[in-house]
């Protein structure tokens, strides 16, 4: 998906940045997606209180009972996009020749690397129920300019314990590992907890983690959590206790704290102002760097104007 806000902000952690467990609740904000005929999404990453969770640098939730998604071709660099529909199907087309439908329970992942462009349309193109997540992971510096590629996984592994089923999108939960390609240690999982159940999810204590409830109510590490905000858990946890009286569906994100200072603007993740400027100029100039997405003619999303100040990295305050 594309960002239309392209905001620039300093982004220190709300706590002191020292390692260890925390419980920090972060509200989502509404953001328009896809222009006049687009939809509104709820964004919990990035924001001032928390720019990243591991390599996860972007998290949008779309939650509509009747809507149409029409996101025209737009570019990306330096990241992976992770598309996770919950209700409704999405058609993905990109400049490396992909043209696929992704359905609930299936994973679309696109590695932008040096540069790629893509479009996303809900199917069929009429108002319908549409719920899901769009996430980005930042590529580490050594892999930021890899050749772009796309992968789809339609049969993901599930970690099961009594009353709990955890679909592993990326990385591993216990001994259950996703086949999706990752470039830094991280985890992304979609979990369903039965009503009245109590369960323990094993975690890597070297990761920082966060939880987003999709449906229902959940108690996480003794903290009541409703659908909407993101609960940041910090590092140093060997496991996570979850419980629900009503039943709940939630997403667990985590990864090793990402030390690179990133410049994030619009759909680009880079390391410097000049890198972002160059990518924008090449997109606006229709260079070969981003290729073309078939089926749209000349239609595309133009880049917003750059700010009048130099873009600076989103630095995390460290203890």
From TrEMBL:
Keywords: Iron, Metal-binding. Its cofactor is Fe cation. GO terms for molecular function: metal ion binding. Fe cation binds at residues 74, 76, 118, 120. Residues 190-285 form the Pirin C-terminal domain. This is Pirin family protein. The lineage of its organism: Bacteria, Bacillati, Actinomycetota, Actinomycetes, Micrococcales. Residues 289-319 are annotated as: Disordered.
């Amino acid at each position: 998906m594309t960002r239309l806000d392209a905001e620039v902000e300093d982004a220190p952690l709300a706590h002191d940045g020292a390692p260890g467990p925390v419980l920090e609740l972060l509200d989502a904000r509404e953001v328009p997606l896809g222009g006049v005929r687009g939809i509104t999404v709820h964004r919990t990453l990035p924001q001032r209180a928390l720019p990243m969770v591991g390599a996860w640098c972007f998290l949008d939730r779309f939650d509509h009972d009747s809507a149409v998604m029409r996101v025209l071709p737009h570019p990306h660099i330096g990241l992976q996009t992770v598309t996770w529909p919950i209700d409704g199907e999405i058609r993905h087309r990109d400049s490396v020749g992909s043209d696929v439908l992704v359905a609930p329970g299936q994973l679309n992942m696109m590695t932008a690397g040096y540069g790629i462009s893509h479009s996303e349309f809900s199917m069929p193109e009429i108002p319908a129920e549409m719920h899901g997540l769009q996430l980005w992971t930042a590529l580490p510096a050594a892999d930021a300019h890899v050749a772009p590629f796309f992968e789809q996984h339609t049969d993901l592994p599930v970690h099961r314990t009594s009353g709990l089923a955890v679909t592993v999108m990326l990385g591993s939960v216990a001994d259950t590992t996703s086949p999706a390609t990752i470039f830094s240690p991280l985890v992304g999982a979609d979990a369903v907890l039965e009503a009245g159940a109590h369960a323990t999810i094993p975690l890597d204590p070297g990761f920082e983690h966060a939880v987003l409830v999709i449906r229902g109510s959940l108690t996480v590490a003794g903290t009541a959590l409703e659908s909407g905000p993101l609960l940041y858990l910090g590092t140093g946890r060997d496991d996570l206790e979850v419980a629900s009286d009503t039943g709940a569906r939630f997403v667990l994100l985590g990864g090793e704290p990402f030390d690179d200072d990133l410049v994030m603007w619009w759909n680009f993740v880079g390391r410097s102002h000049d890198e972002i400027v160059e990518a924008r100029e090449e997109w606006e100039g229709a260079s070969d760097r981003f290729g073309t997405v078939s089926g749209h003619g000349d239609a595309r999303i133009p880049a917003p104007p750059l700010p009048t100040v130099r873009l600076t990295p989103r630095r995390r305050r460290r203890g």
